[in-house]
User: Fold this.
Amino acid sequence: MIVIESSLLGRFKDVKFGFSTKIGLGRNGQFDFNLSYSVGDDPGIVTENRKMFIESLGLSNDNIAFQKQIHSDIITIVDKPGVVGESDGLITNKSGIGLAVTSADCTPIFIYDRKNKVIAAVHSGWRGTEKQILFKTLEKMKSEFGSEPENLFAYIGPSISKANYEVGAEVATLFDDKFLTANKSSFHLDVSSVNLDYLLKFGLPKQNIQHSQICSYGARHLLHSYRRDGAASGRALGIIALMEN
Assistant:
């Protein structure tokens, strides 16, 4: 099994983090090592995949909080594991609970407040990015838990790159030109960098941010990509958990 780690989040003993890939348990079928129940994969296989991935992080499936992602700006404060409903951002200050985000091109962001011991996990496709879900998550961390930018550390996970993400004018007009490249009648949008900009605007120091350059679309043998594979695409799972010191 190949799990993508964060060298930034890995500096903290009270944080566990991992991001799954297509490679695990020798799965070479239609969905490879898929961790989502919503793509048509065999539920029994998905359950086994999740169990193996989560246990590889030293966690238990019974201690993970999952959300039904709907490309929104809804943020849920989590105080217990399980399915928490519809949202695209999760926050907790409870140790032992993992926060999960599924992804197959959208930008996943994972945040740790070193001082107040708070974590967050955000799913941000172009819709969520346009709605500023990441910035709103940061604001909620500050208002609810006193999180200040200098104490926050953020990992922007693998997602589709600007070179491989073509959008129409109706989407392009929602974003600043600095995140776009025009291509005749279409545009290429850098969703990941928009989210990086939100982190910087909130005040996170650059050294407190790790920005993955792995493109989900381009890493054909490593990562799931809905834009590349369509209905045949599985989903990756990223999990951040706050542990007892």
Remarks:
- Helices lie at 43-56, 126-130, 133-145, 169-172, 191-202, 226-229.
- The first strand starts at residue 3 and ends at 4.
- Residues 42 and 102 are 17 Å apart (CA to CA).
